[in-house]
Amino acid sequence: MKPFAYLRPTGLPEAVAAHGGRPGSRYLGGGTNLVDLMKLGVEAPDTLVDLTGLPLASVEETSDGGLRIGSGVRNATLASHPLVRTRYPVLAQAVLAGASAQLRNVATTGGNLLQRTRCPYFQDVAKPCNKREPGSGCGARDGSHRDHAVLGHSPQCIATHPSDLAVALAVLDASVELHGPDGTRSVPAAAFHRLPGEHPERDTVVEPGEIVTAVLLPPETAGLPCRYRKARDRASYAFALASVAALLDIADGRVRRVALAFGGLAHRPWRASAAEELLRGADPTETAVRQAVEAELAGAQPLRDNAYKVPLARNLACDVLLALARAARS
Amino acid sequence: MDPEPPARTPALGVPATRREGLLKVTGTARYAAEHALPDRAYAWPVPATVARGQVTAVDTAAALALPGVLAVLTPYDAPRLGPADDPNLRVLQDLAVPHRGWYVALAVAESTEAARAAAAAVRVTYDTDPHDTGLRTDHPDLYTPEIVNGGYPAHRERGDAVAAFAAAEVQVDCAYTVPPLHNHPMEPHAATALWEAGEAGETGDAGDAGAAALTVYDSSQGTGLVRQALAALFRLPEDRVTVVSEHVGGAFGCKGTPRPHVVLAAMAARYTGRPVTLALPRRHLPAVVGHRPPTLHRVRLGARTDGTLTALAHEVTTHTSRIREFVEQAAVPARVMYAAPALLTTHRVVALDVPTPSWMRAPGECPGMYALESAVDELADALGTDPVELRIRNEPDAEPDSGRPFSSRHLVACLREGAALFDWAAHRTPRRDGPLLIGTGVASSTYPVYVAPASARVHARPDGTYLVQTNATDLGTGARTVLGQIAADTLRVPPDRVTVEIGHSALPPGPVAGGSAGTASWGWAVHDACADLVALLERHPRPLPEPGLSVSADTTASAKQRSPYARHAFGAQFAEVQVDTVTGEVRVRRLLGVFAAGRILNPLTARSQFVGGMVMGLGMALTEHSGVDPAFGDFTESDLASYHVPVHADVPDIEVHWLDEHDKHLNPVGGKGIGEIGIVGTAAAIGNAFHHATGRRIRELPLTPDRVLTALE
Amino acid sequence: MAHPIERTRSRVRLQVNGERYEGELDHRVTLLDLLREHLGLTGAKKGCDHGQCGACTVLVDGRRANSCLLLAVAQDGADVTTVEGLGPAGPNPLQEAFLERDAFQCGYCTPGQLCSATGLLAEAAAAPGSADLSRAGIAEGMSGNLCRCGAYPRIVDAVRDVVAARENAAPGGAVRGGAVRGEAVHGEAVHGEAVHGEAVRGEVGA
């Protein structure tokens, strides 16, 4: 870790100015990912701008009946907030499925979205990684990639995004608010993270100097039946091998609204739009659900060692959707 | 002062809370990196980033320019060391790189953050050679060594097992794979080293060391070996080297021999003239502190239709490094377990560009019994015989390979008792509960009885208290406490009259804490010293005059005697697992072990040791995966986020029982050692339960969702 | 707010176990290293230094956190409790329970387990409706603290002892917990739910 300047502004304009959009500047939330990466030498900022002094740590109802979650809200606070638990329970479930209590107490909503992949080649500065050093190669492709992507990967990068929270946001049709030198803008959560393409060094659409200021949950997905389920290598404190967030609203025996997203399969939460298309308006029988999910996963491109993720994701998605369907019937 | 009244409650065989417990729960116990000596500096090693080759240059300029950096040692300029039995200790002495992670430089600085930054700024260049890190059964360089770890012959044959197998009515021929496994004690290896000038004045170069003295606080399983190694490496008389390991944060074998960190700490302290603390970064551990090597097993069992074995062949293939041979003795337990008239056990090893393996809890027995006990389960399945009954049917009268009589063996009782406690008979049909498949499995456990010579001194003070001293080491085993109980029991006084001092190289010598032999070894010496003291005190009027009376004992003559008996602890483990057909996740619902390990000296700490071993066995079965990266030659899962040791939520309330076993062929206190047997058999019991639940057999560990889903398809 | 001295150092003030600390620190110094190397409070342990083991767990403003990932300068003004501060007048009931239950072996994860359990119990007290203090709930809640010695079942015993003692002290007590001993380890978690906390599951389908 090289020495760095540390600033803790109390207002947004001050924070943006302190960061200056410079390549050596980093915003600091809880630090649970950034400090880890700094110790690994993957990140080497010369200036840290601590955002925890900004008024970004509240959960508020919006005038349209949605919820505004400040980017500084700690994961634990988010998961235990009564409005989140009652209106958007998949989000609380997803957050509680991740990390440990200690990490959840410290990590922020913004930080959770911005966390980097845990690919071991990304984390080891002595190994090739196009995400960390564009053009240096991908160590995972021919090496160990059991945990890596089966969807949306590119020749340059097969990393997955580790966030559970982001997968839940994808099915809730959330949006992410950003504030930067050019003002404020909003991006759908499902478009916040990128696919690697030819620029795996860019995880998200955040522009230099921009701060994630809030996550907005819309009223349309509030109070709808939804669930998160995660499969991992041990019973707790591990990243997803695959995970599923699903939202399923049934009226008169037909799917009125459905959203399905996968975690652990791609460089970003994978919104299963093909599956959703097939399920919208349909009777969610076991066959219908399975066919829809398989249609989505038909495009999967597993690698030598991660083909198991396809049946795993299929099973998880069917299990969660059918459980939601059963619950709706009873 | 009156003579002590006889103790009214026995001190041995009763639960006693740990003597250092208060220190540990208040955070005041000091571990090796926690001695804040004045002017202390911090060291951070630089690992090689190639799997095989030579260092061609080490550029330290950028590192040395950083604030707070005191020195960067390299193979070019590091002080020259003396000899070492273990080439892994001769760090920074030459340019060869035998594996990725081998240390090629050492940064020393005023703070840990400065040392870390300096280490990261060192630029090393290499000439690399193609590396070979892949273990396979048809590797052309495989050879059969003379002996394997533990001093056993690598190859043993009794009868013609291959022919007997071929002629057997029922045959099981299966291959199992155990991956590399890592000890990962919670405390990474650390040492704080301090040099003192002797009467002659300044400390000098390593070659001019007559007057200097070295003190090291080290996280080790035995300060005696560390002192011996450091004395040779730094060319000091042993009496000028002091090593202290008062509190050690776990070890499980990887601190059993001296490790490079202690050499580097001493070297850095010498070079800078300051005390130096070196605490290894967690990610470095797999490469430099030893590991359980991967083992490939082929087990052939030939049997009659009544289940009695006619042939047992267990062949093990494993790896070692290019610089030191270590061969995991995984086929050895097959020489002990079952009455097969034809028996073949053998080991082959290949030297690869990998780190040197070393001890990890129950070396040999742990992976070997996974394979053997899984194969026995496959035989039970083939025969349609109950797996408990099949084992009982093959109970030997004497140790199968050697023919020696057992000093005591209660495996059958463990199996029967365990089956009853586990309600085994009621769970013989696998069942389904929604998406969960539920099954049960059993496996035997075994661990040999080892004992080593030790010395102890006990001092009777005029005030009626006693001081017991022996260079034992307590890694969390409870040794300190049990030794106090042995002393109190022999002295016939309440334990609170006894103080125990261990973990210091100036104390009467004792063997390393390993091989489950510690309590037997040190305890023997403590017992003898206390018994002799009791006899002496009977002849002395009380109160004793100052300074009191001391007696020393040395068990070399008695402990070294080769026993005519085959001496082993045995046990049986039972597991119930659930397999989630949706995700492939396997979780243990129940885990029970019954052990016969001689006399249990402290039920409180013994239960913790058994459970601890079983938790590690659970990890071996379900969560701990390590692999060698074919492209880069290192262990891909090098930190605790990727190498999954079990967490709280993985572990059910494990049940442990033991049978009182009175074996008079052991040692004066009658224990067989319990630190390692808990991990032996657990993985097989879980794997066998998986098979019971699903009807599928996965023959490699761990049983992670990827393998399970593939097997269930 | 920490007072910058040079570009890379600041004067930092915080409270540790009730005592005020003030010092000039390199911004790179973690809270863990501040405690261990600057304040001589070696109770919090460095098990991995990367937030993967929980041995460094302390309480910051009453909430458990991995001190190895907290920059000391960013904790300016915080109130930190370490294992040394849990029972300043001798071992507290949780520490006593650890001793009685043999909820430790090598002791290296123990300070972290104690601070984590303290945090867990505080979280449960603050949100009694959703706290799960069954064996399974405690095990899940403590899963951020690795123990290689495998003392997990005894640690859960010890925490359950404290839960029971609190329930007895406040009958009709604030938290659900189930039987002290012998209940099934795997409650709802057995059937594959990703999360503990019945209240959350119950709202699915609302």
Automatic annotation (TrEMBL), chain A:
Among PROSITE patterns, the record links this protein to: FAD_PCMH (PS51387)
User: Pfam families this protein is in?
Assistant: CO_deh_flav_C, FAD_binding_5
Regions annotated as coiled coil:
none
Q: Which InterPro entries match?
A: CO_DH_flav_C (IPR005107), CO_DH_flav_C_dom_sf (IPR036683), Diverse_Substr_Oxidored (IPR051312), FAD-bd_PCMH (IPR016166), FAD-bd_PCMH-like_sf (IPR036318), FAD-bd_PCMH_sub1 (IPR016167), FAD-bd_PCMH_sub2 (IPR016169), Mopterin_DH_FAD-bd (IPR002346)
* Location of the FAD-binding PCMH-type domain: 1-222
Which keywords has UniProt assigned to this entry? Oxidoreductase
SUPFAM superfamilies, alphabetically? CO dehydrogenase flavoprotein C-terminal domain-like (SSF55447), FAD-binding/transporter-associated domain-like (SSF56176)
Q: What is this protein called?
A: Xanthine dehydrogenase family protein subunit M
Automatic annotation (TrEMBL), chain B:
Reading the lineage from the top rank, the first entry is: Bacteria
Q: Which residues form the Aldehyde oxidase/xanthine dehydrogenase a/b hammerhead domain?
A: 26-130
Classification via SUPFAM superfamilies: CO dehydrogenase molybdoprotein N-domain-like, Molybdenum cofactor-binding domain
The family database entries (Pfam families) matched by this protein are listed as: Ald_Xan_dh_C (PF01315), MoCoBD_1 (PF02738), MoCoBD_2 (PF20256)
Q: Which Gene3D superfamilies match?
A: Aldehyde oxidase/xanthine dehydrogenase, a/b hammerhead, Aldehyde oxidase/xanthine dehydrogenase, molybdopterin binding domain
What keywords were assigned to this record?
Molybdenum, Oxidoreductase
The name on file for this protein is: Molybdopterin-dependent oxidoreductase
Protein's organism: Streptomyces bambusae
Automatic annotation (TrEMBL), chain C:
InterPro entries, alphabetized: 2Fe-2S-bd, 2Fe-2S-bd_dom_sf, 2Fe-2S_ferredoxin-like_sf, 2Fe-2S_ferredoxin-type, 2Fe2S_fd_BS, Aldehyde_Oxdr_Iron-Sulfur, Beta-grasp_dom_sf
Q: Does the keyword Heme apply?
A: no
For this protein, the record's PROSITE patterns field holds: 2FE2S_FER_1 (PS00197), 2FE2S_FER_2 (PS51085)
Every copy of the 2Fe-2S ferredoxin-type domain together lies at 10-86
The domain of life for this entry's organism is: Bacteria
Q: Which UniProt keywords apply?
A: Iron, Metal-binding, Oxidoreductase
Does the entry feature the keyword Iron, yes or no?
yes
Q: Which PANTHER family match?
A: OXIDOREDUCTASE WITH IRON-SULFUR SUBUNIT, OXIDOREDUCTASE, IRON-SULPHUR BINDING SUBUNIT-RELATED-RELATED
Q: What is this protein called?
A: 2Fe-2S iron-sulfur cluster binding domain-containing protein
**Organism placement in taxonomy:** Bacteria, Bacillati, Actinomycetota, Actinomycetes, Kitasatosporales
